[in-house]
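Write out a sequence, fold above all:
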Amino acid sequence: MAKKVVFSKDNDKLVVEDTQDLHTKDGILKKEDLQSGGKALTNKNVDLYVTDAFFVDKLLKIKRGPAVMTAKDIGTIISHTGVSSGWKVLDAGTGCGVLAAYLSNIVGPKGVVVSYEKRKEFLEIAKKNFEMLGVKVDLRNMDVYEGIEEKDLDLITLDLTEPWRVLEHAYKSLKKGGFLVCYVPTVTQLMEIEKHNDYTLFFIEETIEVLERKWHVEGLKIRPKNRMLGHTGFLVFMRRI
């Protein structure tokens, strides 16, 4: 049994098991076609495209509860911190675990990702998602406002209502030059971070809002799509002094 991802020309994307026939709006795709992969024809003569499912495909199958950080914001965290194999990372405010899963997938077996979540119902959701995605995250039922046990960290990510309450804890746990990234949805939260930051502890490198607009590309029909993914949150990148 293996997970497969099935694409259509309408940009629909399904992640399925290859153990039985697949019933879609475009018709039925035989189990044998799922298992062999490649271009396949349904019983309605519609072309579908089948390949093995990777990590980013399996994310479509996660169980949701709390709000999920978007790929555009996660990608910006990855690119602006340079997180890589072997890093030690703390993620606080696990939610359903998407950011922690991405980070674990990047740091690999040589790295460590610890994630704090104080709400037990979110903890259970994240635990099941990590198992389904096959990533290793040290998931803990802890409140980061009360302190951080880990030391010598390369990166701390905070998806919390009041991240400024973690600044002193983060300073004690990060390496010199280590990254603290705060994800907040409102301008008033940005103001509070600036207000509470002591520039002998952290330097605020930059604050970013990421907007994403997809395009429709079909022959000569090339135009931006009617909807875009606008404001989701601000990313505040800070460095330990």
Notes: The longest strand covers residues 174-184. The chain has two domains: 3-53, 59-240. The domain at 59-240 is CATH 3.40.50.150 (Rossmann fold).
